[in-house]
Amino acid sequence: MATSTSTVLRFQRKVALLIGNQNYCRSEDQLRHTINDVDDISIALRNMKFHVKTEHDLYNSEMICAFSDFSNIIIDGDLILFYFSGHGCEINGRNYLLPIDDELIENDKVKRERNDSHPMELPAGTYVVFACSPYQIASDGLLTERNGLFAKHLLKHMTKPNKDIKQLFRTVTNGVCIESKQKQKPTRIDGLIGLEQIYLNDKSIHINNGNKKTKYKGSSVLQ
């Protein structure tokens, strides 16, 4: 709920792009739960009034088109959320998301560095979360489970009404760390400014003030 020391952010729309790359061209690089992850998160986001575009198993050219098409629908005043589940890497301080046909994944050095996500400069109003810390491997989940470890804990908490985005991902991080016994520690990079109250699932709250009702509406920012 908004307080006298916080700013409530409002947005015209909530839009999201989710990409799950699972069936990589080399069989040894294939993942188990990434498609389930993005499908389940897509459902949760739609239930929170997001306009969602979900993509599976994209080649390089298809990923470029997906980003281009998504950027073309964004307008001022939008809340933007992007979620990627698949292989990634860091090379010379830059982070890359790998399409299913990317030859970089065949490079053993890149495989060792694929979760070495260095700190980055963020534009104001952005909040980035990596599923693990540098030099760690993000768990793709157990065969008996539907989701990867990070997505499992995100799905558990993301739909809670009026939960501040920073509090949400602190909760997710704690859950992942505990279940993995500290082997996987999500990394959060905060580019938000001030004391904004930021919610994925924003709900209106009416407070009686004598005969006058004041309406507070929580909103969220995530890019």
Quick recap of the structure?
By secondary structure, this protein is of the alpha/beta class. The chain has five helices and eleven strands. Residues 12-90 form the Caspase family p20 domain.
CATH topology: Rossmann fold
Strand order of the largest sheet: 3-2-4
The percent of residues in helical segments reads 25-40%
Supply the CATH architecture.
3-Layer(aba) Sandwich
Structural class: alpha/beta
Query: Radius of gyration from the CA trace?
Result: 18 Å
End-to-end separation = 22 Å
Summed up, the helix count is 5
**Global mean pLDDT:** 82
Overall tally of structural domains:
1
The biggest beta sheet, please? 3 strands, parallel
Q: Report the portion of residues in β strands.
A: 25-35%
Topology, number of strands: 11
Shape estimate: globular
What's the CATH class, please? Alpha Beta
The stretches of 5 or more residues where confidence is low (pLDDT under 50) are 108-118, 206-223
User: How would you spell out the order of helices and strands?
Assistant: EEHEHEEEHEHHEEEE
GO biological process, one term: proteolysis
InterPro entries: Caspase-like_dom_sf, Caspase-related_regulators, Pept_C14_caspase, Pept_C14_p20
Protein name: Caspase family p20 domain-containing protein
Organism: Adineta steineri
